[in-house]
Design goal:
By secondary structure, the protein is α/β, with parallel strands linked by helices. It has a domain of 140 residues: Vaccinia Virus protein VP39 (Rossmann fold). 27% of the residues lie in helices and 25% in strands. It has six helices and ten strands, in the order βββααβαββαβαβαββ. Strands 5-4-6-7-10-9 form a six-stranded mixed sheet, with helices on both faces. The chain has a four-stranded antiparallel sheet with strand order 1-2-3-8. The longest helix has 15 residues. The chain is globular. The model has no long low-confidence stretch (mean pLDDT 96). GO terms for molecular function: methyltransferase activity. This is Class I SAM-dependent methyltransferase.
């Protein structure tokens, strides 16, 4: 069966890995590794997994985790820059951190904060931490986020990156049934070129893209 890459819509995908639970295809165009649609969770099962998350702005450990994106992005922002936290989850925290630093924030999450009106206005920066690996249609969603950025605006992403087939086979990241898309440096490089974005890798699992 021909599979369409959910990021670039290419049909140039080939088997990359297989385990007892799922198959993984790698796109020959953008290098995205993805799970076939038939092997994704349905919305109810997906939300049941997210409902188990216990993230909170009162958790210092969670704040330290998010600081890997927060710190390098904040130092690039003008005072009062307006942001959107996309995929904020059941316990929005990164938005709280930016608000504490003087940045007005909106939040969006399809399950927990589904106000689509916030996706109709522009932002100086947009964050998505541990989000892109969950997207069924990453091409459509990320293209939309880029369009919401004001000129010079920043898109800050946090997701672990594919290294090699050997590392992938033993990778804990693929054990989460809600993780269906896996990006590599090559994938982000392809995406940056597609949108003429400036690309930065400030940490192993952090990507910053600036709209020109």
């Amino acid at each position: 069966m021909m599979l369409i890459c959910p990021l670039c819509a290419s049909v140039d995908a080939a088997p990359f890995h297989r385990d007892a639970r799922r198959d993984y295809q790698r796109c020959g165009c953008c290098a995205l590794v993805f799970v076939p649609p038939a092997q994704r969770l349905d919305p109810a099962a997906e939300r049941a997994v997210y409902d188990q998350h216990e993230n909170s702005p009162d958790d210092p450990g969670y704040r330290r985790f998010l600081s890997r994106l927060f710190d390098p992005l904040r130092e690039r922002l003008a005072p009062g820059a307006r942001g959107l936290d996309f995929g904020a989850g059941p316990g929005p925290t990164l938005s709280v951190m930016f608000e504490e630093a003087g940045h007005p924030m909106a939040i969006y999450d399809p399950f927990y904060a589904p106000d689509a009106a916030v996706l109709e206005r522009g932002y100086d920066f947009i964050t998505a931490t541990e989000v892109v690996e969950h997207l069924f249609a990453p091409g459509e969603e990320l293209d939309r986020l880029v369009e919401l950025l004001e000129p010079g605006g920043w898109l800050g992403l946090m997701t672990k990156r594919v290294a090699s087939p050997e590392a992938f086979a033993g990778w804990h990241y693929i054990l989460d049934p809600t993780h269906v898309c896996f990006f590599s440096e090559a994938t982000f490089t392809w995406f940056a070129r597609r949108h003429d974005l400036r690309l930065h890798f400030p940490a192993a699992d952090v990507v910053l893209l600036q709209r020109t």
